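SUBJECT: protein chain
CONTENTS: sequence, structure tokens:
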Amino acid sequence: MPKEYKHDCISVNKPACLNIYNLTGTLPFMRYGERLRAARTYAGLTQAELAAEIGGVCTQANISGLEKSLTANGSEFTAQFAHACGVDSLWLATGDGLMLNQQVSEPVQQVTQRMQTLSQREQYRVARMVEAYLEPAENEPDKTQDSLRSKQ
């Protein structure tokens, strides 16, 4: 039987940065629930799938509550969530460091810096445009790569 989790109400303010691929961190003042949602989205999991992925020790409703909470500062399942989503557990727990422990290329760093100057709404708009641009690349990687090389 899944364990019901009750989270404490403590505010968290952790500044960091986020690029459109969610590779380098978080948006300024990104709350725990926002980081959890970003990690889950990165992993391509639904809330129910994430609950199942960590062995059903918490429910989809618990994950939903954590993601929606304005005051949750963590969960006793943070390490399991991070492992299941393939993200750094310190980043998920505190917002410190990088979402993924990997080197980020110079173009991605430049985009990250530029994205920080935009409002949150503008950041989401740019992210949607990039996703729309990349959809054909996922279906036809060879043609997209060839067209990118020809433009360079």
Summary: The CA atoms of residues 35 and 92 lie 6 Å apart. The first helix runs from residue 32 to 43. The chain has eight helices and no strands. The chain has two domains: 1-102, 118-151.
